[in-house]
Amino acid sequence: MIGGDQPAAPGAATCGDEPALPDAATCDAAGVDAGRDSVGRHVNPTNAPADFVASGAGQHGGAGQHGGAGQHGGAGQHDAAGQHDAAGQHDAAERALVDAHRREWAFVLAATARVAGDLDLAEECVQEAYVAALGAWARDGVPDRPGAWLTATARRKALDVLRRRQVFRSKLPLLVEPDEVEMDEPDEVAVPDDRLRLVFTCCHPAIAREAQVALTLRLVCGVSTGDIARAFLVSEPTMAARVTRAKKKISVARIPYRVPDSAELPERLDAVLTVVHLLFTTGHTAPSGGDLVRADLVDRALHLTRMLRELMPDEPEVRGLQALLLLTDARRATRTDDQGRLLRLEDQDRSRWDRAAIDEGHRLVVDAFRTGRVGRYALQAAIASLHALAPSYAATDWPQIVRLYDALLARWPSPVVALNRAVAVSMVDGPEAALAEVDALAQDPRLAGYHYLPAIRADLLRRLNRPAEAAQAYRAALELVDNAAERAFLTTRLTNLT
Description:
Elements: H1 24-29, H2 50-57, H3 69-72, H4 76-116, H5 119-140, H6 146-165, H7 194-202, H8 209-219, H9 225-232, H10 236-252, H11 265-284, E1 288-289, H12 295-311, H13 316-329, H14 355-370, H15 376-389, H16 398-411, H17 415-428, H18 431-441, H19 452-463, H20 467-478, E2 482-483, H21 484-497
Parallel strand pairs: 1-2
């Protein structure tokens, strides 16, 4: 038992339509893996790396520009070899650029924003740097440190714009060397990582909470607008408008890009924790594409959480979030089989779970509960800990999990939390009782288009031996899901009914 039947104190309040994300283990029990929302590749406004190729191909390294027989007069085989080398170098540059985008985007944007002092300008300059990189790397070779090249190029472009605008005229002598440029900061540097610096800036209290989270995911984490919209259960145009308004707010209100001091950190903490949690969940299970996990996003979220704990070691919700991420990610190696097919929690090999991560996560949960200030992340981590520590699926303490969900709902009334609770109820009171709760939740408009609701309903109907209704629910879920592994799993379940 973790922390007794009921936590001692309420957690942080939620607001607006802040996303509630389904619990990994309970969704496993319902016949799908973790209920997570996807992240797309954010390369530029078109969200397609191929656009970089198109923008650079006409300028650099084309066969028609370099090495034609009429120009060099060599034998045909020499021309072919030259063209082959150019094509190979161009391909290498393209691969390096895609990899640099996935790994370095947050670093490059954060460093550029520190120089530009304007998020719109920083984003524009970073996009231009990525476009310039393809041509330069195809021509000169991929640099040893692609991230440093991109950062220097983006910062230089930002400084050029500032000079052209004649902004900060009195500071222009200080802007000659980009690497020496720093914005004014408090004497106490509370946030040592540029990515967290940018996260806290986007989470400025002058910006509405839902806009803080969306803006940070878009700018810092590279999550596509459509995927953020799915995480918040709103339409893509609505989310695009929200991001635009948030960026305008930063500009109009002249919100500075600077390090928040220690006194400011607590009021921004809840929004930052939400951002890091959503970043993790978007990497944990992608609703589109062939890969179930985006390991780079999961690892980035884990890194940010550890850094937050270094900053605020006494905050129980920071411990709770770190515990939740560790306990959830501990199952990463067992969530699919050798063919990439999704495995339910009850079918996973628990001997392959990351025991070091589970032990660390459980210790953090206990520490958080001992403070008496238990919030929503510590409660979710407690649920994840019960799943992780159970010797088998059958031996899971489902009654305790239901009680923890009751406490979580009292602190965080969300339809997704209620849906997760219904799965646990099915293990305590049976599928009939759970189905009544799921059918009631189906009337909530916030769950419209949420594919885990019909997927869970289908599994409950299957357990009740109502195959025709279960098949209809599986088809409804398939109409809403894009992830290849989840589609394959649901399709197999549907096929097995007929």
